[in-house]
Amino acid sequence: MLLKEYRICMPLTVDEYKIGQLYMISKHSHEQSDRGEGVEVVQNEPFEDPHHGNGQFTEKRVYLNSKLPSWARAVVPKIFYVTEKAWNYYPYTITEYTCSFLPKFSIHIETKYEDNKGSNDRIFDNEAKDLEREVCFIDIACDEIPERYYKESEDPKHFKSEKTGRGQLREGWRDSHQPIMCSYKLVTVKFEVWGLQTRVEQFVHKVVRDILLIGHRQAFAWVDEWYDMTMDEVREFERATQEATNRKIGVFPPAISISSIPLLPSSVRSAPSSAPSTPLSTDAPEFLSVPKDRPRKKSAPETLTLPDPEKRATLNLPGIHSSDKPCRPKLE
Questions:
Q1: Which Gene3D superfamilies does this one have (predicted)?
Q2: What is the mean pLDDT of the chain?
Q3: What is the strand order of the sheet 38-49 is part of?
Q4: Residue 301: burial class (beta carbons within 10 Å; 0-12, 13-18, 19+)
């Protein structure tokens, strides 16, 4: 298990970002989807939790085979997806990722939003007070992103919002900019397979960090698109975009189903909220398992039948002549 805490600041308020994060997630999912790959929305519905109150539950399937490294593509099926379940009780959210093909793999993310510049070192005291973790600050203006994802229009160093007047951020902007908010994310990656654990967990954290950086840059760069939206308007945008995304990857309506009782996240059921969900199956994936019943090789006959000594003469075997008689033991 590898635990890290990420802190991402933005020139927004927590109240403003309530709309922005919904808009960003929907648009980003649509842009990253293509035929056969992307984000399929399975469920998206209101949900009430006795502790956290009213929220929204979503379930998605993330198809990403082509985005896996070559060593991972060698051991996963061609049709490969990760299940995402999210409980949004803004300004607190829980997101879990699992994969039926890799039952020992999971990602658990808890997010809290506050109006500060990432200065709250005790924000996860209830969830992970005694757990050792690395704290990573992500700067949406100055941190480098993978070149293939770079767009100048989404670069906070160049973008300036017409509706808010914010933007063109420079190094050190977090120390003086107002308003400012921080997205605190406690991310637990778990892949308990001997020989692969460290490599996979480190790789997943690198991917998570890139996604967080890109997503928060986009949320700010798209601020003029969502800034004046109401909650009803962003929910309608979310619904229309999700249906378009499902069609884009080849999933046709009815694609979004409604369930009266969605599953609770693992943090609400019984395990501590900082712990990743535990898959129902603990069996190793097939490619890592030793077959229980191996078929017996038949390179040789199972039984060997020897010729009757009395009939050896008729067989014309090498070294055996018709005059030869079977040997008998001598009687004393």
A1: 3.30.530.20
A2: 79
A3: 38-49, 53-63, 81-89, 92-98, 105-114, 181-191, 2-10, 134-138
A4: exposed
pTM: 0.73
Q: What is the pLDDT of residues 120-152, one digit of tens each?
A: 999 999 988 888 999 999 999 999 998 988 999
Task: Report residue 142: phi and psi, to 5°.
Answer: -110, -20
Closest CA relative to residue 183, chosen from 8, 3, 324:
8
With a pLDDT cut of 90, the percent of the chain lying above it is 55
A 10 A CB-CB count for 155 gives 17
What's the CATH number of domain 2-244, 2.40.420.20, 3.90.79.10, 3.30.530.20, 3.20.20.370? 3.30.530.20
Q: DSSP for 254-270?
A: S--B--SSPPPPHHHHT
The contacts of residue 199 (CB under 8 Å, 6+ apart) are none
Domain ranges of the chain: 2-244
pLDDT tens digit string along 191-212? 988 888 999 899 999 999 999 9
Provide the pLDDT for residue 294.
Answer: 46
Q: Which two tokens stand for residue 163?
A: 């509706």
Angstrom distance (rounded) from CA 44 to CA 23: 14
Residues 6 or more apart in contact with residue 142 via CB below 8 angstroms: 157, 171
Cα separation, 1 vs 187, in Å, equals 10
Report d(CA 244, CA 106) in Å as an integer. 28
